[in-house]
Amino acid sequence: MKAVGLLEYLPIENENSLIDIELPRPTPKGKDLLVKIYAISVNPVDVKVRAPKDKKEEAYKILGWDASGVVVEVGEECTLFQPGDEVFYAGSIIRPGTYSEYHLVNERIVGAKPKNLTHAQSAAIPLTAITAWEGLFERLAIDINNKEKNKQKNILIIGGAGGVGSIAIQLAKWAGLNVITTASRKETREWVESFGADYVINHHESFKEQLSQIEIDEVDYIFCLNNTDQHWNSMAEVIKPQGKICSIVENEKPLELGLLKSKSATFVWEFMFTKSMYQTEDMINQHLLLNQVSELLDQKVLKTTLNKTLSPIHAANIRKAHAMIETGSTIGKIVLETF
């Protein structure tokens, strides 16, 4: 089968950073599905894992996690899907990735592909939707069954124009929250507004001052999707007493948790690979939430965050997508389709 892999961790400008290869087609066992991949999307985590480092692989490493495709074989323990089912998912970071024509994935982290979306539109969704859903409804504990109460609450989403932000804005609005998000350019402001943001502030300026201008002193929730270190003091300043902060971006310097003490505020991390990495008891929740996201997409409550499509799926185009993400200025999701 066709695949794109690496042996060395090189700058993306180097043609050997990602190369076209041929691998044996795998066979599913246990709870694994074998999926024929029709579309993938590239995420910042792909770029972080591939980033230059002094390390060499003995066998080709396959990156990539988001995918949309069709089940062609199932393991003997599978009960959720059968051959012919269209699916979408974000895979596991400790297993070979989706830069391959066929891919093995545990069915407990797979959802039914939205019926009304193309494979490309669907591939843009899983990793960011899982991250946003878990961040909002599990880590921040926002109650999706109490939308009337949520109308009285504010959430600040830092970095709203990226892949996770684009879906997080929509899910927060669906939950009834008043959504404030950050964006600094005309095109990113227009993008987040198109997904339902109520207010847009600039993450390069004081959060406190900008919130005061819209008559909001503090926020109930903060979802940080960009540079935890840079925004830590500002987040601590504007979070409400007993409020909650969730971040998906690892810190490079120690975080001063003492800033949250007098407010009894909560800080929590979200890493969407935790459940598949540690085989947690609630791993199947990712299957369930992807099915719900799929229904919301079909009902047009949510819309795809796809912003750019490249074709076909091969090393040169994946390198191009990585280079675009490395600029730090991408909006929405980059998808590749067709091997």
TrEMBL record:
Concerning CDD domains, the annotation shows: AL_MDR (cd08252)
Name of the protein this chain belongs to: Zinc-type alcohol dehydrogenase-like protein
Q: Which UniProt keywords apply?
A: Metal-binding, Oxidoreductase, Zinc
Residue ranges of every copy of the Enoyl reductase (ER) domain listed in the record: 5-336
The lineage's top-level taxon is Bacteria
Task: Please give one Pfam family short name.
Answer: ADH_N
Report the NCBIfam families cross-referenced here: adh_fam_1
- Metal-binding among keywords: yes
Cite the InterPro entries for this sequence: ADH-like_C, ADH-like_N, ADH_Zn_typ-1, ER, GroES-like_sf, Lipid_raft_assoc_Zn_ADH, NAD(P)-bd_dom_sf
Q: Tell me its family.
A: Belongs to the zinc-containing alcohol dehydrogenase family. Quinone oxidoreductase subfamily.
